[in-house]
Amino acid sequence: MARKNVVVLGSTGSIGINTLKVVERYPKEFNVVGLSAYNNVKLLEKQIQQFRPKFVAVNSKGREYFRDRLKAPTKMLSVDQDLEELVARTDVHAVVIGMRGAAALKPFISAVRNGKIVAPANKEALVIAGEIIMNSARRNKATVIPVDSEQSAIFQCLQGQNRRELKRVLLTASGGTLLNVPVSQFNELTVEEILKHPRWKMGQKITVDSATLMNKGFEFIEALRLFDLDIDQIEVVIHPEAIIHSMVEYMDGSIIAQLGVTDMRIPIQYALTYPKRLDVGLKPMDFAKLGSLNFQRPDYKKFPSLSLCIDVARQGGTSPSVLNAADEEAVEAFLKHDIRFSDIYPAVEKIVRRHKVQPKPNLNQILAADQWAREETRKVIYKL
Predict the structure, then answer these.
(1) Which domains does the chain have, with CATH numbers?
(2) Burial of 43 from C-beta contacts in 10 A (0-12 / 13-18 / 19+)
(3) For the chain, what is the largest distance between any 2 Cα atoms, rounded to a whole number of angstroms?
(4) Confidence class for position 382, pLDDT limits 50, 70, 90
(5) pLDDT above 60 (res 172)
(6) What is the mean pLDDT of residues 118-132?
(7) What phi, psi does 8 have (nearest 5°)?
(8) Which of 16, 158, 201, 289 could bond 11 through an S-S bridge, CB–CB 3.0 to 4.6 Å?
């Protein structure tokens, strides 16, 4: 069987790096056609030398860096303008979306419109335009297999089952950095303290969102779109050990759970090889050493971002776009030390409540809401 041609968007981030580890392990299964990155040009250069993609997409600084370094046959593209065309190429079979934020929206839509296998680790695109993406995927016979461990777990637990017998989805959360930190200390928390996630090594933005549980709220909305669920069919459960990545309960009371070590290569490889499974090269889980697995309900008062996300899911329309944009701006301000950690939620909540929701928006309306929310959030942040 011919190798699967893969494009990796965000190849220098944790998802991209792990994707390329999967490709490296199975060179007869995969071939890298394209890579994209925004900042880490030196790592990107090493990836280009190893995998020799036809295309590499970078920003203006990256193009300057590679001007005299990039050798044929690799062609340089713009990460801001050319990703939609790159993922739409007829020789591309699968697209891994490891880039963060709303910037992934247009290439995601382009990939599904062109019937690709899409493996998204980016949840923002599905949050702000999930209905448009999934409707397009169905029309164009694209396959969307999520790479986030929780969504991958749900996807796996649904395989071979009758969807009409589904009762609920149990979406697990580790609890993030602040699970055992009292609210009274939130005002004093530094960027460095927030970024020390107890289980995962992730990008800065997603680690902050994990601390506020905004990330789990995004996953709540994402699951609605990916699996065509009702809001009342999803329940969030705190599971600090992060061994069970999510569960699905059926009408007869049976619960199917997906368990595994905390390594992103497992869901990435499954998305790329589906429905086939291959050895990932990890040590098997030793259940005798696990000890106990613990579960608890989320504290919605301590982490109001989760409640806000569920409210936004009920509102629908342009509301999720506003939520995501406001959160991106507020988190970025925190990471730059412009606001306190405890300022993030009030800023986001203010913008969401201020927005006049447009029901059933088209893509242009979604993007307009995104831009409005960013401008309004900056104004709020400036006054803090």
Answers:
(1) 4-147 (3.40.50.720), 151-262+283-383 (1.10.1740.10)
(2) middle
(3) 64
(4) confident
(5) yes
(6) 95
(7) -115, 110
(8) 16
